[in-house]
Amino acid sequence: MLSINSDRLKKSVLELSKIGYNETDHGVYRWGFTDADMEARRWMMEQAKAEGFETFMDGAGNVFFGLGDYLKKPAVLTGSHLDTVPAGGIFDGALGVLAGFEVLRSIKENDIKLRHPVWVVGTAEEEGRFGGMMGSQAIAGVLNPDWLMSAHDADNVYLKDAMAAHGMSVMDALDAAWPPERLKAFYELHIEQGPVLFQKDITIGAVEGISGVFKWIVHLKGKADHAGTAPMHMRSDAFMGLADFAHEIERIIAEDGTEKTRITVGKVDLKPGSPHTVPGEAVFTIVGRDMSPDVMKELADSCNKALSAIARKHRLKFEYEQVSWLNPQACSVKLTKQIEEKAKARKYSCLKMPSGAGHDAQFFTEITESGLIFIPSVNGVSHAPDEWSHWHDVEAGCNILFDCIIDSAQ
Ligand SMILES: [Zn+2]
């Protein structure tokens, strides 16, 4: 049985991790369409080109490289994202792109003859700086001009401006769509980013589906007051409203959620932000996730009701903007089974499981059969500098990706 070259893969992972690396907190900073993010895209194309693969970047910033003519025969596509959250880890996204690269190199050096083209994609803006998964949405053809023009990050930087800073035009993302007939299958290898595989000591996760996610930016507006002179009962303290909502999250999940529900307030801004002033405004994000679109709707509804009641109690004005809404997506039953079978053949332990985090693969499910492979995250940590996966698991995951791609492209 042929295997991938794990040392070569490890070397690539470590090399890419240097782009955007911060010496102080040891995190990787490749937030979508920042300089470091674009540098990683150029690096990936250079690497692929140096080994004789065809490469290009599409209008959405997705980087492609591969073997064979996908205009003649449907391609087997694999990959993940090259961007990271601020202070992210070295495996999230990068592993899926570099494992695809390693699969290509293994196909080439072993001179494996395949009927279908095999291509790899390093997608753009998967981490949702601008509220979506722009790169894979562009490939799936689900972007629209209104969203592209209005998309902005939590600091009010617009997507169109962030792209223009790198000489890109946001509307070109609309030309990045792949017609379904050009694809045979899509595979993504990703770290689990949760504790399940690690705690159960299982090597491979065969993912059945990906939870949906919604993101809100909430404004609670009260009145900024002198912290010394404004009596406690006469305040419109926006922070108190936010604090009350934080306590409601547990109840909302108990009443309307499932064991797969997650609700998170991850970014908070108090204005004017002075220790001696009653906060007149609280701006914060809510991110909700579940495997069922109906449950997601109920959760969103409950957040809305809870915040309205809290606003009345504290004499605040409540407004929110729904920045994104991504429905849950099922992976291909056939490919999930294929992943399980390949794991069995290599004697790797394997678990069929849902994904609590969103991934590029969820948009590929709209245009082709999609399979998602997980490997364990040590202690379940991700989106943090101490994100880690053991190299033997990295190797195992890449071998399964290799086996699945060879099988599909034959
Ligand atoms: Zn990721």
TrEMBL record:
Family statement: Belongs to the peptidase M20 family.
Cofactor binding, note field: Binds 2 Zn(2+) ions per subunit.
Residue positions binding Zn(2+) 2: 92, 127, 383
Annotated Gene3D superfamilies: 3.30.70.360, Zn peptidases
Entry annotated with the keyword Metal-binding: yes
Protein name in UniProt: Zn-dependent hydrolase
Keyword annotations: Hydrolase, Metal-binding, Zinc
Alphabetized GO MF terms: hydrolase activity, acting on carbon-nitrogen (but not peptide) bonds, in linear amidines; metal ion binding
Top-level taxon of the source organism: Bacteria
SUPFAM superfamilies: Bacterial exopeptidase dimerisation domain, Zn-dependent exopeptidases
Residues annotated as binding Zn(2+) 1: 81, 92, 190
UniProt cofactor(s): Zn(2+)
Peptidase M20 dimerisation domain ranges (all copies): 211-313
PANTHER family: ALLANTOATE AMIDOHYDROLASE, ALLANTOATE DEIMINASE-RELATED
